[in-house]
Design goal:
Number of helices: 9
Number of strands: 9
Structural class: alpha+beta
Helix content: 25-40%
Strand content: 5-15%
Strand order of the largest sheet: 6-7-5-8-9
Radius of gyration: 24 Å
Shape: globular
Distance between the termini: 69 Å
């Protein structure tokens, strides 16, 4: 056995292969979680379960069988590991590798590439604050700062009661409702520092919380199970859209704007059925209602301002 140098003491071994050993994360001191593994005060790896439960193994195999090429199931399988274990554990990596006939290094390369896969235990509620430019200037940075102080945790840290994990998120793809906070991937729109503080207090109290657009908030593990491909029959629960999302469509209808036709013409000869702007009568909104949607003023801080219907430009928030 090769003797360790002083600089290698406390290195993390990944699985059973002694060659898969890496130094602890430079920003994480011994005694805390480092990379995908936990360490005791002396830096030694804490023993992880040798395998996942039989039920989880069976479901992992089921996921692998859903695809013509089994390796295509790796992403949902990692979500299932998180649903079972609370994060991507060494045992979870080994199980996925064995089922898919991959190496542990190949599985861990995927698990460490995507930010939705976690290498340390996550709380019941993953609260993600969008701090990309639009949300940031609309108040996202202020929201994150308030929650850091209120929860007494930093980015990617969990409250001592295990209820809330706080993290920055790089764009929630919901700019029309900025600033946006997500809880276990459910949207909470037009947030302010105070509304976000009230939200996390509600979550920690155990009360049922309804998303702005989407279902009632479930636990993070329950959400991970859905992402793995095991539905909870709540796909249609709650609202999924709102006026801000429809502003562009309504402006196009009012101005007669259509997408260019592939042959270079203006598309005027197309039938209504082929024109997505003027078709879909089941989603049509009357002119008076459309104008109310487009021209509405929302003076409250942090909410959307009205649109200038003459120019199509939004007015600044009040």
């Amino acid at each position: 056995m090769t003797e360790e140098t002083p600089s290698q003491a406390g290195w993390v071994q990944f699985g059973a292969d002694p060659s898969l050993r890496v130094p602890p994360h430079p920003n994480v001191s011994l005694g805390t979680v480092a990379t995908a593994f936990e360490h005791d005060a002396a830096g030694a790896e804490l023993s992880a379960p040798s395998r996942l439960g039989d039920a989880t193994i069976a479901e992992l195999r089921e996921l692998a069988g859903r695809y013509p090429r089994a390796q295509s199931a790796l992403l949902p399988m990692l979500h299932l590991v998180q649903a079972s274990e609370g994060y991507v554990t060494p045992a979870g990596v080994e199980a996925c590798a064995e089922i898919l006939e991959l190496t542990a290094a190949e599985v861990s390369g995927v698990a460490t590439f995507y930010t939705m896969y976690k290498r340390r235990p996550i709380g019941d509620y993953l609260v993600g604050v969008c701090t990309n430019p639009l949300c940031a200037v609309m108040g996202g940075d202020a929201i994150f700062d308030r929650l850091e102080g209120h929860l007494d945790v930093g980015n990617d840290e969990t409250t001592p009661d295990g209820k809330v994990t706080l993290e920055h998120i790089e764009c929630n793809a919901a700019c029309d409702y900025a600033p946006v906070v997500m809880v276990n991937w459910e949207f909470f729109d037009n947030q302010t520092p105070q509304s976000a503080t009230d939200l996390v207090d509600e979550l920690r109290s155990g009360r049922t919380v309804q998303a702005s657009r989407g279902a009632r908030v479930c636990t993070w593990r329950e959400a991970e199970r859905v992402l793995a491909g095991f539905g909870d029959n709540r796909a249609d629960e709650g609202p999924v859209g709102g006026p801000a999302t429809l502003v562009g469509l309504e402006l196009a209808r009012r101005n007669g704007w259509t997408a260019p036709h592939p042959d270079g013409t203006d598309g005027s000869s197309r039938s209504a059925a082929a024109d997505p702007v003027h078709a879909a009568p089941d989603t049509d909104v009357g002119r008076s209602q459309s104008e109310a949607i487009v021209d509405q003023d929302v003076p409250a801080s942090g909410e959307h301002a009205s649109s200038d219907t003459a120019t199509g430009k939004g007015t600044p928030p009040q």
